[in-house]
Amino acid sequence: MPSELWEHLRPFVEDLVRTAAPATAYTEKQLYPAVTKLARWASETAGLPLKTKLILHPANIDRFANEGLVAYTNAGRATMRSKLRRVAAAILDGETPQDRKRPMGKAPASSPYTEPELATLLSWVNGQPTRERKTSAGALLALGIGAGLTGREIVAQRLDSVTVDEAGVVVHVAGDDARDVPVVREWEHFLAERLELVGSDAWAFRSGQEGGNINLITDFVSRSHKRVNLQARRMRATWLVHHLSVGTPVTSLMRAAGLHSIEALDRLLPLAEGRTEREYRDDLRGG
Description:
Layout: H1 3-20, H2 28-45, H3 52-55, H4 58-67, H5 74-92, H6 115-126, H7 131-144, H8 151-156, E1 162-165, E2 168-173, E3 179-182, H9 188-198, H10 216-222, H11 232-246, H12 250-257, H13 277-285
Antiparallel strand pairs: 1-2, 2-3
Helix pairs in contact: 1-2, 1-5, 2-5, 4-5, 6-7, 7-9
């Protein structure tokens, strides 16, 4: 975590942990990770003020467990949520009603970025102070919004696995879900600019990194001159909804997204724009 962010969060986190620990079955050491992650998510992602009753409200604890712990298993998220509920019970002493416990299931669908939000992200890229940071920020958007890569895949992407030719730009993703992803046309130039600056023997995002830091995107954004709500999950959702809206064949979309079941798109379908009557007829007629 950036030191300036921790200095902002530390008094709040320390107060919660020291107050709650004696009234729970957990030590302060066991509570610190959960409370710190909750506070960081509330401040950076949810945009909530650091007010105890608000942060520890069961609805926000549940939201954090679903949205802020996507790298955890269902069991891991349930454990973190349980710790935070114990903290809430110890500190609020029944002042905030507790929701009934629900089993941890799939996280709710991330909302795609709106057009005004996309304009803000483009402005954020253009406002970066150095060409290194500008091309890195652009590559981040190209890989997330233009190619739908996950956060881990973005961090691990090398430029020698990006092809630029007369037909466009293709990102060759390695790993368990290896695939080739053509980049949406309007985002292609960011990867071309990144290649021009650092060459093919480099990371697509953040020069000098080691490829395994899952917090790299959050750290990069938090150190920017302008704070933006930039999340890998929302970038990927934006890419998926774009393709659903423009009528990309589902089989092609699943291949590019590394999805193994069409059910993975269920939660995003209601967010896609409807096709016009003519597009609808052409889609089904084959023209």
